[in-house]
Structure formats: C-alpha cells, structure tokens
Design brief:
Layout (H helix, E strand, L loop, with lengths): L9 H7 L6 E5 L3 E5 L7 E7 L14 H22 L3 E3 L13 E5 L6
Antiparallel strand pairs: 1-2, 2-3, 3-5, 4-5
Amino acid sequence: MVKTEMSEDFYCDEVLSGKTEVRKVHETDDVLAYHHTRPFWPVHIVVIPKRHIGSLLTLEESDSTLLLEMIEMVKRVADRVVAEHGACRVLTNLGRYQDSKHLHWHVSFGDPNLS
C-alpha cells in the first residue's frame, strides 16, 4: 500500500473524526489543544487546526488567520504549563521528523526519561 499524506494523518483520521478519544485542554471552532495520546514528556499537549494543513511549510497566505489563532492557543497552553511547572518547550516537526502529516505544535514539560 502506498501511503498518501492523508493516510499518514493521525489528527484527521483519528482525533478529529472522533475514533480516538482525547482529553481536551482547550478548544475553539478551528483549533484543538489536547493531552497527547502517547506522551513523550510528563506534560505533553498537542495543538492542531481542525482542518487539514500538511505542515508549517504548506501554509498558504489564506491560512494566516488560522495560524494566528493556533499561535494564540499555543501561547495560552504554554502560559498554563509555565504557571504550573515553571517552564515548557514549544515545537513543531517538519519533513522526516513529522510523523503525522498535519500541522501541529507540541507544548511540553519534563524529562522524557522520567515519565
């Protein structure tokens, strides 16, 4: 089977379809933040757009409002994690590092070896 971009999209195929239940942190009409289903860090929250965008590199000019809303959500979640734990990481992956071909941001805290 040849994998297409959409067949590698856990967020559309599982999370947004409702097949995989998630513990939501915050949600708007266009953006969802939730606790990662298989956390790498002790605190691991994912922020995704509710419509498919392949990655940061595939954003179009027409996506600027959605990107701004995503960044506001990342900021809100990061602020909460910093308030609770004193620090956090914010990252997105591209290319081979990006397992799911759907734009997403990780907001995390902690040592993965201690989770």
